[in-house]
Each structure stands twice: as C-alpha cells, then as structure tokens.
C-alpha cells in the first residue's frame, strides 16, 4: 500500500553524480524542491544517498520513475525504498550520554521517533543500539 510506503528512498552507486547534481536530478524527477519538500543525506562511506520526502508523495511511483530515468541509468545509480527497521545504531555519542536521554530523544515524534523498547549503550565505541517497539516511528 503506497500510504504505508517509506518516505525515504535510497540511491546507491552515487559516486558518478556530484551532490549538487543529485539534488537537481531529484528535483527534476519529482517536481519538488530540495529542503522545502525533501532532504538528501549523503553517506559517502557506502556510496549511498537517502532522500526523505517531507511532502507526502507516492514514493513507490517515484522509485519507478527514477529507475526508468535516462540520467539515473547513465550514472548507473539504483533507487529503492528505505526498509523499515525496529533497530538503529547511534554513533559519535558524547561520553556522558545516558540511556534515559536516548530513550526520550528517540521517542520524540518531533525527531521522527516512536516508542522505544530498549537502549543498549556501548561506551567504548561512543555508540548505542536503540530498539523501537514497532517499525512505524523510526528515524
């Protein structure tokens, strides 16, 4: 069901497309504006970008349009919906962070969160694993 589709789309193999070019390409395909209607997060370590739509669109149709778009194919990029998950890893956390703080932060709907069932801190890595009660309200 499109209403339940993720608002985020993953673009893989982005190395041949500069960040500005990618943003313009996504604006051209979607007819929307970066920052006002969607955001783009680059994850260069794994050669991926994630576009998250603030404005409600049919992301399944958007992925189809991207897959058929000539420029996307020329750049050899792929597009797919971001899978829902119940568990995320938070990294680069301050030394003084507490499980209570992380629970409250990730339960905030303002931050895109939802009910948290468990937080496991890894102080030696300055990271934590946050597990949500379900996969509807995840960041």
From TrEMBL:
A matching Pfam family: RRM_PARP14_3
InterPro entries: Nucleotide-bd_a/b_plait_sf, RRM_PARP14_2
Ranges for domain PARP14 second RRM: 5-83
Organism: Panurus biarmicus
This protein's encoding gene: Parp14_1
Annotated coiled-coil segments of the chain: none
Protein's name according to its UniProt entry: PAR14 polymerase
